Amino acid sequence: AQKVTQAQTEISVVEKEDVTLDCVYETRDTTYYLFWYKQPPSGELVFLIRRNSFDEQNEISGRYSWNFQKSTSSFNFTITASQVVDSAVYFCALTSGGYQKVTFGTGTKLQVIP
Amino acid sequence: GAVVSQHPSRVICKSGTSVKIECRSLDFQATTMFWYRQFPKKSLMLMATSNEGSKATYEQGVEKDKFLINHASLTLSTLTVTSAHPEDSSFYICSVSGGRGDQPQHFGDGTRLSIL
Fold first, then answer.
1. Distance between CA atoms of A93 and B50, rounded to whole angstroms?
2. B100/A98 touch (CB, cutoff 8 Å), yes or no
């Protein structure tokens, strides 16, 4: 069975603060893929990043960075110098076993206050 | 990545009406599409996997006679909510994936269904 846990339901930060969104996953497969998606208030889901289970290299893209640690089964997402446009619900997700079915976390709602 | 168009974006209709939602893959031939339902402030719940040319695979607890899925071509899947009732009101989202789990899902913009 697969599971993705996002323990933080809602986070509020003041603009320009850094914020980390936590994601912990469970899977029995050795090959799996982790994703982060952003859902702004308008509703559409936007793909942010993908990581495969064999690549623990952290990644930075502008103000976004991701920390993947297999030892703790975590795939955390950090936004530095947050902006109001970052306000959204962020979902961590998992696929494994060569299947397309996605297991989503419950999402973390981020509110960036100007 | 795949571009996915979902239509309509919003539907308001009376109880008992059947509503059809279309999901089109504009630049990718999708043998598989997914339909999700999202309640307010909740995560996405997978309803069914839509398979081109064959029957959809429904998740446990999803009524297949209530939520009819048709995937007649490689670019179009439809979800019909039959005899809709207020409890069917929700945000419905379709997605397309280009790979076998290794590729991200590309989502339609969603359909907000409100049954009066």
1. 20
2. yes
Nearest Cα neighbor of B26 from B69, B74, B86, B67 is B74
Distance from C-alpha of B95 to C-alpha of A102, rounded to nearest angstrom: 11
Torsion-angle region of A106 (φ positive above 0: left; ψ -120 to 50: alpha; else: beta): alpha
Enumerate the β-bridge partners of residue B92.
Answer: B37, B111
Distance CA B48, CA B41 (A): 21
- Tokens 């999202």 appear where? B38
Measured between alpha carbons, how far is A102 from A94 in angstroms, rounded to an integer?
A: 6
Strands A103-104, B4-7: parallel, antiparallel or unpaired by DSSP? unpaired
Which chain A residue is nearest to residue B59, measuring alpha carbons?
A101
Predicted pLDDT of residue A29? 92
- State whether residue B87 is helix, strand or coil: helix
How does pLDDT run across B35-47, given as a tens digit for each residue?
999 988 888 999 9
Mean pLDDT of chain B: 92
Contact B107 A106 (CB under 8 A): no
B87 lies within 8 A of chain A by CB? no
